[in-house]
Amino acid sequence: MIGGFLSMYEKPTYEDLEQKIKILEKAVMEAEQYRVALKQSEEKFRILADLSPAAIMLYQDGRWIYANQATETIFGYSAKELLRMNSWDIAHPDFKAFVQECGQKFERGEETTYRYEVKIIRRDGSEKWVDLTGASTMIGKRPVGIISVTDINDRKRAEEERYHYEKLHGVLEMAGAVCHELNQPMQIISGYSEMLLKDTAEDDPVHIKVDKINKQIRRMSTITKKLMRIKDSQTEDYAGFSRIININKSSDQESE
Q1: How does pLDDT run across 68-108, given as a tens digit for each residue?
Q2: What is the CATH number of domain 53-151?
Q3: CA 224, CA 244: separation in Å to the nearest integer?
Q4: CA-CA distance, 89 to 91, in Å (whole number)?
């Protein structure tokens, strides 16, 4: 018992010290190798990110911690300016709460990947649609969000124009059907009015009234022809609070 107690205070041998020094040197070497490998990995990431036409960004705790060169092209902000901002500050007001909530879920580990189409506000105040793809990673045992942002403004504009065209096309088809249905009764009214005009004297009050009816029928006929030949949707102000299609400018039917 006493011998065991005394052995706890025995001085380490030279071999023991040498072994411990080797273990310590190995740990220091491995730590240095890890540091060098990490630095090289970061340098490779920065090179690849800066070559990317898409904006590559990292965020942690709701703040941007890295932004590549392409971010300035898309967002209008420099990387230094972005690093002073919250990750949701650049979102359009209609999407700000959504972007903030998604980022918080992401950092809590509730989502590992995501992809959304959102609208942002650029530095100059203009709006832009972007495709935002995100994934999670770890830096220093802490979750970090990495996102790729691409400009889809032209595609969104094309989609809106196509939607507008399809909507206009549907309205014009309905207008064409209505005009077709109106043509027959207008022809009958026009025919009878022409007969009445021939059967009455020009100074006859009936003749004067029928002549007015006949002129309005011809006017309606011109309008229906223009409606059926609308090729564009040029609009104009109406009553000071709305806009309507200018039939004369939108139709290829010449005015009579």
Answers
A1: 888 888 899 988 898 888 888 889 999 988 888 887 777 67
A2: 3.30.450.20
A3: 16
A4: 6
